[in-house]
Amino acid sequence: MPASTSKPSSPRRGRAVPPAEGGALLARYALYLTAERGVAENTRLAYLRDARNYLARLTEWKVVPAAATPDTIQRYLAWMQDESYRRTSIMRAIASLKGLHRYLLAEKLAPADPTALLQFARPGRTLPGTLSQAEVARLLGAPDVTVPLGLRDRALLELLYGCGLRVTELTTLPLSAVNREEGWVRVMGKGSRERIVPVGREALAWLDKYLAGSRPVWAKRRGRPDEVFLSQQGGRLTRVRVWMLIRQYAAAAGIAKPLSPHTLRHCFATHLLEGGAGLRDVQELLGHASLATTQIYTHVDRRRLAEIYRKFHPRA
Question: Is there a catalytic annotation at residue 190?
């Protein structure tokens, strides 16, 4: 990312992008991302959000995309900083702008790529937030399982933690992907990579109770959908709703740490390593394409070992 946040000189001006034209460009770019790049749906949506935001600024500045220069890109990044966008959002926007302008150049919709020489440092990896095993037990025990919603939520939390699923993998998990007899689920992860994940006895027990109790009633309200986890109206749960549920049950369990669905995925990996699982095994269970992604959890484990050392070693 550029070192300076000062706004550069005004970029070369051109015809503003009418909303209809900008919409047509986004539609073509969306098709390109799906058909030619083959990006995952969430990545595609993020790239399109960034592109839409960028094109809106170009319209405001009366700059046509084909006339964008490196100064235009610098001005946009400076605008994002002025608007207090998070660093991770700016880093993603850089990747999005590079993709958009490469597309414009390849399709001969622009004479040059103004992002070609744009350099940026990747953000350092941060240690994932996690919970102790006792805190996880309190969180999982927070739903009131005497009511249908509580039964669903207990099964949902057990599966998130017991299988280390991403929230999208959970909300889109079809019934056909669950093998309750043999105790595993077939998960479609990032990049359409499929993996088989074992399901523990506890998670299976709660899943069985939910599938036999709450779900059949709700499924009748929406033409018997295929997803495992449904709303009371019979529709698929959203990622935002799952996030809200976890916050709700964390408060009920007296856990003050900021939590998200991904926290339980972190707990899954951390507790496996603490129990002696190998890094390669955890990589396979998490569905990471690269071992480097999984290696962040070795830092979590080292931090735990350092705490143990400081607590128990007489010379620490």
Answer: yes
- Domains, the chain, ordered by start: 19-106 (1.10.150.130), 133-312 (1.10.443.10)
Confirm whether 161 is a catalytic residue: no
**pLDDT per residue as tens digits for the range 15-38:** 444 444 567 888 899 888 887 777
Tell me whether strands 184-188 and 194-198 are parallel, antiparallel or unpaired.
antiparallel
DSSP 205-245: HHHHHHHHTHHHHHHGGGT--SBSSB-TTSSBPPHHHHHHH
Active-site residue, selected from the candidate residues 101, 215, 265, 266:
265
Q: What does pTM read for this prediction?
A: 0.61
Residues 6+ apart with CB under 8 A from 71: 8, 9, 10, 11, 12
**Residue 166 is among the residues annotated as catalytic for this protein:** yes
Tell me the pLDDT tens digit for each residue of 142-180: 999 999 999 999 999 999 999 999 888 999 999 999 998
Q: Write out pLDDT tens, residues 216-262.
A: 989 888 776 789 999 999 988 888 899 999 999 999 999 998 888 88
154 is catalytic: no
> How far is Cα of residue 259 from the mean position of the Cα atoms in its chain?
14
Instruction: Tell me the three-class secondary structure of 131-154, residue by residue.
Output: CCHHHHHHHHCCCCCCCHHHHHHH
The answer to whether residues 91 and 130 touch, using CB atoms and an 8 Å cutoff, is no
Please calculate the CA angle 101-102-108 and round it to the nearest 5 degrees: 90
- Alpha-carbon distance of 301 to 96, in angstroms, equals 34
Q: Report how far apart, in Å, the C-alpha atoms of 140 and of each of 155, 207, 275, 286 are.
A: 9, 13, 20, 20
Catalytic residue among 102, 186, 190, 241: 190
Question: Token digits for 216?
Answer: 């059949």
